[in-house]
Amino acid sequence: MFTGIDEVDWASLRHAYGSAEDVPGWLRALASTDPVERATALDGMYGAVHHQGNVYDSTLACVPFLFALAAREEVRDRGALVELLVSIGTESEGSTESDRPAESGGPARSDRRAESRGSAEGGERTARDAVRAGAEGFVALAGDADPAVRSTAAGALVRFLDEPARTLELLRRRIRAEHDDRVLLALTEALGLFVRRYPTHADAAVDLLAEQSALPYTAGLRLAALGQLALGAPGRSPADLVPIAVRLLRERSAHRVRAPREPGTDTLVGRIRRLRPSDEEGSQLLRTLHTALGDRIDDRTALLAGQLTSPDPADRCNAVWMAATLLRGWRGDHTGSVTLLGAQLASDPDRLREAAASVLAEMFALAAPASDDLHGLVATRPDLWTHRWERGAPTLGSPLKALVRSGDPRAVPVLAQLLAGPEAPADLGFELTHLGRAATPLAPALRHRLGRVPLVAPSAARLAAPLLSAVGAVEDTAAAPEVLRLLSGAPDGLGAREAVTDQVIRTLETLGAAGRARPVLRALLNTRHAATAAGALWSSDGDVDAVLPVLLRELSEGDPVNRRLAARQLGRLGPAARAALPELHRAARSGPIRQRAAAACALWGIGGDPEPVLPVLRAAWTEAPRTRGPIARCLLAMGPAATLSRDLIAAELASPHRHTARRHGSGGVRAIPEDEALLKTCRAVLAGT
């Protein structure tokens, strides 16, 4: 197994944390009879040698030894070794739609892979080729006595054995000979991968999948085959795919054997395995179907309804996380899905209830159909009002957070109790902004806490920021002295003044109290807070001569954030800022697209001429989707002058995809409310053009 291992100059090779001299020890430990030693070694391999999917020169050096280990029947946990080999070869070539569903929910690879790969010659392609060079080993492993090895080797045949006809014949023979349902499932998924990877050889593989989608195969295998057909050969899928899938899901769940969750070892890999869904196989089956259905929102919603009403809590828990993916990425009427998510809050399994509350907290206003269920849980379970992480201050618990973010005023009495306690949740102020004026009864308590923020303590900014958001949201004008204290009462560069100065200024503007801070604001015109201070001074006294030179300086000399802010502030000045038009025209023609868009919006606010504005906004709309919110607000302000952009707005409203969604991610915690706000503005633009 280890022939030649001592001839490798491991000390000269690298992994994620430096020299690879510890790698031969991990390789030897993978063959240990001690399960903890094996698990710790596997940790080392994933944590350093194949860190976040990266490939290093030491990764390549390990490949022959991993193949040798996987081939020895006396080695335990060989399925994990084959899985590692597949990951090295597959992750290095990049996951594409032909490899696995885009909604797989797997861990994201590091964007810094290229700079952290180490000295691997040939980089990613070399790693793929290194694993392909051992592809004959996968042929032998596909018939191994260990089902875990056979399962992983099935997909490896498709990925690394570059002989389509031979690969398909091997899969066909294995399907005929296999009796283990888990291995049959892996073979079905391998067939689906074959169809997507080798479309010119796919017909026979599609026939095999169609055969597996019917009796006498088990419900789980039929469901898997239907998913792979829908993904790779949708024309061969039944017209009533969703009802069939729901029926098979119920049948599978009724006969599923609930294996006890193993405690596992206290290692990275062990912890990850314990965090997997209780029915990971079912989760994957339904993810494949959802991915295949894609933009067919009605069908996906019907499939979710079938999952969320299943008698099996594991099915419902899988559905909750799938609902999160759907609602984050796709628009539509999600009322029914949200209502069913709310129904899970009354479930006995903590895991299901916690999952539903967590997902509803991401829905913000869209969670309103579940607000009665949320309120019922909050009212009966005070122990869920807050959550304290292992370290740090308490935060709002998911049920209460979801109720607040939905805008339900029934959350106010609970928040009042928390504010009256000795340690209010750290995020309470940020969250209650979603209640708006409904949170006005909390104003005195918020004001009191804001007045007690220690000005020079290290915790000043952390304590002040959420409270400033809150007093601004409830428009508590009586809090102006407490806000002003943060701006003028702390020494320069210390505590709350430096860390939250921009937020303090904006809060004073919101409260109409910026005029009371004129001396301090003028003093800030030569600091990094200049653009914010200038905007506040303008709103308080309209002194163009005092703020225009400052904003022009920031527009041409500031950092990217301040340049955009200066452009927005100039747009607020309107025609009084005509002297800024030449510099804004220059900014709109060159530079980062977000800066160009901000300058274009300012041009409209000052000059009222759509001709130089609309081309820039159209380019930014396409190139930088996250600029669409401010651009739509600018188009709304333009009114009939924005008519030439109606096609952009109409296309946005017709798109099923949220503009905040990314291919492998949600786009952030505010992805849904930001997209819903864009849709609302777009509708208003169409009505006004």
Largest sheet: 2 strands, antiparallel
The Rg value, from CA coordinates, equals: 29 Å
Number of helices: 38
Q: Strand order within the widest sheet?
A: 1-2
Task: Tell me, briefly, the overall form.
Answer: globular
Look at the helices and sheets and give the structural class.
mainly alpha
Number of strands: 4
Tell me the fraction of residues in β-strands, as a range.
under 5%
**Which architecture of one domain does the CATH hierarchy give at level 2?**
Alpha Horseshoe
End-to-end distance: 73 Å
Binned, the helix content reads 55-70%
Residue-averaged pLDDT: 89
CATH C-level class of one domain is Mainly Alpha
Describe the structure.
With 689 residues, the chain is mainly alpha-helical. Among the domains are: 1-100 and 114-162, Leucine-rich Repeat Variant (Alpha Horseshoe), CATH 1.25.10; 516-598; 624-689, no CATH class. 62% of the residues lie in helices and 1% in strands. The strands form two sheets. A two-stranded antiparallel sheet has the order 1-2. α3 runs antiparallel to α4 and α12 runs antiparallel to α13 (241-255). The longest helix has 18 residues, at 671-688. It is globular and about 85 Å long. The N and C termini lie far apart (73 Å). The model is unreliable at 92-123 and 268-276 (pLDDT under 50).
